[in-house]
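For the sake of transparency, this paper describes our internal protein records without simplification. Such a record has a labelled line for the sequence and another for the backbone structure tokens. Nothing more is needed to write down the fold, since each code stands for a local backbone conformation. For reference, a complete record is included directly beneath this paragraph.
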Amino acid sequence: MVLSLVSLCAREVVRDHSSSPCWLRWVPRELYRPLLDASFTGCRPLAVGELVQRWPERTLRVGRRRKPGQTGPNRLCVQALLLAVVKGMSDQRCALQVLDLCGLQGDEGGMGDPMGGWSLTVALCTMVVQARTRAQRAQRERKRLSVLQREKDVKRERGEKTNTSEPGGHDAEKLDLCGTMEEEELIPGVRRRMEVERKRDPSVTGPAGTRRDAEEKEVNADVSVHVRADLFVNARSWERVRGALSAQGPLRLQCRYLRVEEVSVTTIKTLLGLLPRQGLLGIDVRYSSLGVAGLAELLPLLSTFPALSSLRLHYCNLDFRRDHVGQEEALRDLSQGLTQLQELRRLSLTALRLPGQLRVLLSSLPRPLEILELPYLSLSPADFAYLSCSHHASTLQQLDLSENRLDENTLTSVRRLLSQAAGGLQHLSLSGCGLTDGLLGLLLPSLGGCRALKSLALALNPLSVAGLVDLVRMAVRMPSLRQLLYPNPLEDYQPGLPDLPSSAQLLDWPLDAVTDINVTSSQLNRVLIESGRSDLFLTCDLLNYDKDLVD
């Protein structure tokens, strides 16, 4: 990566913190961004704090989509940033109104010691509570000083010998003036005083909307900085998150993507009730025992978020059984709730055990999906048949059917599905689907027709070396394909593997130490070289495979 002259100079400037008093007062506003980026890159938390505390613009975005291999900001720098935001609220030089930290979280324990989503959520909640406490303490101090000043003024007036005003009239006017000044003194800076005036003028706010919208407008009128971030909530952090979302202070916490783990339906409902309605784009629920009835309770609440476009449910115990009393009614409620999600574009259902019910779920959605992930769903032939003819098929950009067993009965539907999605499908995963050489041979023409496909995952399928060679020969004829995740061939495993092993057996069965796995890799790469495709990446590394690297 070639650095610009501004970036190189910014790195040199922030390198020596002892010189910051000399240059901070003279820095023009357009150089704050390069200096802040250099401070994050060079891990200079003191420089981060001083720049953020004086931030000259209304918006500060720190969480951006990182390039492959790029790590997130260091934990110390993130902590310095949050502390500086609180301090900057009492600094006349700071103009910050919106702090966007979406995507800031990194992998816990990763390179460079980034702050993970769980730690970042707790730190954000602590910052919100600290800002409220700091504001309350400052407010009490200003009130105390105001009372002392009024008492001093009253004593001075009593000492003056004048009868020009009516008894008590001047004092009443003075007290009223002090009361007005007291409210304005709580608001530092001209910008915040203008916001108070706008709040007092009912003509600015317009006609009243719903009760919820009116309450949010009233709360936002007293907010100095809106903090937008992705929130990660589990049973341990729930109380802190609830306290931060319930706090009415100078900082207002807003959520873009919400991820919750191992919490009850009641807790999720309470959490959704605390979140601002505008801005929530997606919710990810994992390892929570929702059940069909529990999810049906949540969907009406989710429909109140107008921008919600992503719903992900992983291992949420949606085990549908017709012999259980009330399951049919709960499934109808679930279908009815899905009809209210007007903007849904992504639906991920992992290991929910709903065989034969895909039509009930997907036909309820008012608009076609772009991303559909259905791993470990035990899809039936009827499910595949519906999916291939549904209104979602032609709009799919990402499809994950991993760990759903394919055979002769379902292959026809899968080929029809791929034919419908061929024009726009960019990412496809058929890992662990039991594809043998024969089944793959029947499927290759349909896969080759997906002209927009960028990544293809076929790990944990019982394929031989010959089947892999045929796969790569088809892949090199797909001009958009950039990544191919292929399985270890059956020849690389130790003897004793069943004739048709499952994906779990292929994952656990040891590879033969005598066989050199590099031989298979060299054979497949030779096909690439012969075709002249140097832009196609082949890998059998399932753990480090990331389809997003091609975007």
About this structure: The longest strand covers residues 251-261. DSSP finds 21 helices and 13 strands in the chain.
